[in-house]
Amino acid sequence: MRTGISRPDSLTGSPLTRPAIGGPVLVGLFLIFGYGLWLIAGPVLARPEIWGVLFTSLGLALLACMPAIATVLYLDRREPEPWWLLTLTFLWGAVVATGIAVVLETMASESLAVLFDESVALVDTTQLGLQLLDPDALFTWLESSMIAPFVEEALKGLALVLLFLLIPAETNTMRDGIVYGALVGLAFAVVEATAFIISGYVETGTAEYLAELIPRFVLFGLNGHTLYSALFGAALGWARQSTSYGAVRKSLTIAGGLVLALAAHGMANAFGPFALSVFASLTGLGPTVTGAQLWFLDLAKVIATNVWAYVIILYMVIRSGYWELEVCRSELSEEVPDVVTPAELELVEGEGLWRIRRIPGFSSRRSARLVRAQNELAFRRHDVRRAGLDPDSDPIVSQWRRFISDIREDRARASAPHA
Predict the structure, then answer these.
(1) Residue 19: which pLDDT band, with cuts at 50, 70 and 90?
(2) How high does pLDDT run on average in the chain?
């Protein structure tokens, strides 16, 4: 189906449209992606003997994350994000965040090692608990519970901050933040799992696929990095969509989201191994377990360390859904009858939290196209109103109206009898 009026550009209002900003930013992003790709692919390309394990690991990890991707796209159904922006977000998590994280975590670990070597003699590690009976165990625990969360959440969060700064037209709601945050975290988990499988294969000659994939995708990918980054993304979106928040409150909301992400990540890394050992002991499992048993243990670990984070993200998902519905109802009610018919407004007002409306008389494809355009119009009207301007004088609002009119005309032409 073709329409004469094009969909409004995603770069509307973006600093990237200014040559003085867009050019340097794009060059910088190109260099960052290139550097991250070189960090990841360079060592692997030099060793053809591990390519088989690489492609198998990557394929299995991508397959394991499909349910999470489907869930993210479902959450994004009311105001779908551009495919190219979703792809770039995924690539940032897979290439930039993971590649640079290796460098930064190595540097931080080396710094910690120097400090550790100088101070460990002053620490009676026998008094620190079950896992910390020796200096090496203490160092490993500090490395995983402090360094990794800070470095990884900062790198994934940087992608979200850049999106919200550079593409404001597509990052205007809490739900947008959840979607982009989940994607960047999911991509990180895919490459991280692949890297650990390859690392283990190089060291032992055995590729432990299940041992690395199950912990990272125990909830079909809706755990770990996906959860952590979604928390921060939700906070960014909450701050963006809130009309009653001042600068201080918005800053505190964003900072709170980062703290939640760090806390969820840090708790999983710090107490996850201990929780695993406790659950294994309680269930009588030995050092060798089946895949099903490992899945059960990791599921219990996730619940024990991160159940509070799931309660928060579920609340944010529900709140963002109701907010989207309210924006569509209030804004589209002002577009009756020229852009939205009274019957269509009834469908908008009766739309539920977990489903999307279907417009009678339209094919499935045209109905989806019209519903999305109407929703985009509603959110654009809200953004303009939030900026203190009149939606009726906004050129993008006018363009969405023409786009909707063109969809109707295209449908009428398709329905008209041929001479």
Answers:
(1) confident
(2) 89
Contact between residue 29 and residue 177 where contact means Cβ atoms under 8 Å apart: no
Amino acid in position 106: T
Q: What is the pLDDT of residues 343-356, one digit of tens each?
A: 999 999 999 999 89
**If you compute the radius of gyration of the chain from its CA atoms, what whole number of angstroms results?**
25
Q: How far is CA 81 from the centre of its chain?
A: 12
> Where are the alpha helices (H) located in 14-65, listed in sequence order?
19-45, 51-64
Residue of higher predicted confidence among 252 and 338? 252
pLDDT at 237 over 70: yes
DSSP character at residue 7: P
Measured N-to-C along each axis, helices 148-166 and 174-204 cross at an angle, to the nearest 10 degrees, of 140
Which tokens go with 161? Answer: 């901050």
Two tokens, residue 354 = 């977990």
**pTM score above 0.85:** yes
Q: State how far the Cα of 238 lies from the Cα of 230, in Å rounded to an integer.
A: 12
For 215-228, the pLDDT digits (tens) are 999 999 999 999 99
Question: How would you label 137-151 residue by residue, b for 16+ Cβ within 10 Å and e otherwise?
Answer: ebbebbbbbbbbbeb
CB atoms under 10 Å from CB of 312, counted, come to 17
Distance CA 98, CA 38 (A): 11
Q: Find the DSSP H helices in 205-290.
A: 209-216, 225-241, 247-283
Q: Is 1 helix (H, G, I), strand (E, B) or coil?
A: coil
Tell me phi and psi for residue 234, to 5 degrees. -60, -40
The residue extents of the domains of the chain are 22-288, 336-415
Tokens representing 128 are 């620190």
- For residue 314 the two structure tokens come to 């579920």
Over the stretch 69-82, which tens digit does the pLDDT of each residue have?
A: 999 999 999 999 99
Residue 362: DSSP 8-state: S
Look at residue 123 in the predicted model and tell me its pLDDT.
45
Please give the C-alpha separations between residue 258 and each of 156, 185, 194, in angstroms, as whole numbers.
Answer: 11, 14, 26
Is the pLDDT assigned to residue 120 strictly greater than 60? no
Q: Which residues contact 3 (CB under 8 A, 6 or more apart)?
A: 403, 406, 407, 410
